[in-house]
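Duplicate of #3305? Posting structure anyway:
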């Protein structure tokens, strides 16, 4: 390793395995390991911060320990809402994320959630546990409709997969438009109340920002079809959780598949646990076998770009650069940094 190699602080967490390609990273940079408690000791002088513990807010708490040497922060998640804060936003530090790694797995999870509801898989499992034979008719998924809220990389992967099984898909994003290659029509998220009633399934995968927080509120839930299915694989805070509980209890909507929650783990006292119309999973929609290796390889590829940049700025050479004001990656006018992990 050359003497001028940059210092990388790797922010991990107890019990979380290190990036599997540490040897390759170590050939290119000096590595300093830390957790939230020890970050202040290693942040000083670090040029790069790899946020491997992607839920950590430790950088905000220890921003005063960062020096002018810090130039690049990479978070191993698609959503960066846990990372961004005002001082980081106004600083020259470049932020990148893991956009792209979770697109396919989350799209598969959304499709599985829709199929499980349409084909009554959860009910079949409950009946099996009771040794009950009950013939039923199920819903044909092809020909149903879905609104995907969030038109970035993950939302587009969701749209393509749902279309492949015959679901009529539209999107919802910051600006309305037509003739989108993946969504066809994109509705403005500010007008959700006016459009959600047209869809059998509503999928939430938008990045969490001040504009999207609790965007699916009581008014939007009341505007949905009484048999509608809400799938949330973005952030729990996209949905007004108490309003959702009420909507499910009163039959304002038909079902919910929830992978994310306002507070995680979900409180054992939450009424959601006992609802037959609710499917709960522990924030795992993108976590397939090998996902940590993909995250590590993505960072290593970006590290090589950073080191080979010559006279160019990090923002010019790195991939998945986050617009710190918007809170997601913007590429060719498209949001590609949908919320995840």
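Output from current build:
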């Amino acid at each position: 390793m050359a003497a001028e190699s940059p210092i990388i602080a790797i922010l991990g967490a107890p019990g979380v395995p290190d990036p599997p390609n540490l040897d390759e990273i170590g050939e290119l940079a000096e590595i300093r390991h830390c957790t939230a408690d020890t970050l202040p000791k290693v942040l000083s002088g670090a040029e790069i911060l790899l946020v491997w513990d992607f839920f950590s807010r430790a950088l905000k708490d220890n921003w005063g320990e960062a020096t002018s040497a810090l130039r690049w922060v990479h978070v191993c998640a698609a959503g960066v809402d846990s990372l961004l804060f005002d001082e980081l936003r106004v600083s020259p530090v470049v932020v990148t994320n893991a956009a792209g790694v979770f697109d396919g797995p989350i799209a598969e999870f959304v499709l599985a959630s829709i199929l499980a509801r349409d084909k009554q898989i959860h009910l079949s499992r409950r009946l099996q546990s009771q040794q009950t034979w009950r013939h039923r008719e199920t819903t044909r998924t092809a020909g149903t409709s879905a609104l995907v809220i969030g038109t970035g990389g993950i939302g587009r992967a969701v749209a393509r997969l749902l279309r492949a099984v015959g679901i009529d898909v539209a999107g919802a994003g910051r600006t309305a438009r037509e003739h989108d290659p993946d969504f066809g029509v994109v509705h403005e998220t500010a007008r959700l109340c006016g459009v959600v009633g047209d869809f059998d399934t509503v999928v939430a995968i938008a990045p969490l920002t001040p504009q999207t927080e609790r965007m699916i509120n009581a008014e939007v839930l009341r505007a949905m079809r009484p048999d509608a299915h809400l799938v949330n694989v973005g952030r729990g805070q996209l949905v007004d959780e108490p309003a959702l509980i009420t909507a499910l209890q009163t039959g304002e909507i038909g079902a919910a598949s929830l992978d994310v929650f306002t507070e995680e783990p979900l409180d054992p006292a939450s009424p959601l646990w006992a609802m037959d119309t609710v499917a709960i999973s522990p924030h795992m929609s993108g976590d397939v076998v090998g996902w940590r290796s993909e995250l590590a390889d993505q960072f290593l590829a970006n590290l090589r770009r950073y080191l080979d940049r010559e006279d160019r700025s990090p923002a010019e050479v790195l991939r998945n650069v986050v617009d710190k004001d918007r809170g997601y990656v913007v590429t060719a006018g498209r949001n590609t940094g949908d919320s995840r992990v």
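Confirmed duplicate; merging threads. The longest strand covers residues 168-173. The CA atoms of residues 214 and 240 lie 5 Å apart.
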